[in-house]
Specification:
By secondary structure, the chain is mainly alpha-helical. The chain contains five helices and two strands; from the N terminus they run H-H-H-H-H-E-E.
């Protein structure tokens, strides 16, 4: 149910009905619990901040490619300074 919710743009109410949940609040609670578990338990496996030496290397490469200085990356076109 949580994977469905994250992959689609459906409301809690529609997802609750789709998965036979009695209330949308139950579906919301379950989905948020799964998201919280993923965020707290799995984040270190997928999100890693570079150390200072890696930041310098990444910043230099990013500047060569994009022309922006002092950056180490971007997400969905948003600059991270």
């Amino acid at each position: 149910m949580a994977v469905w919710f994250l992959c689609n743009q459906e409301s809690f109410c529609l997802v609750a009905n789709l998965f036979g949940m009695p209330k949308k609040s139950t579906a919301r609670y379950c989905i948020l619990q799964v998201c919280h578990a993923m965020a707290t338990k799995l984040r270190d496996s997928y999100i890693r901040w570079p150390d200072s030496q890696q930041c310098e290397i990444i910043s230099a490469e990013f500047e060569m490619k994009s022309g922006f200085s002092g950056m180490i990356g971007c997400i969905d076109g948003t600059h991270i300074l």
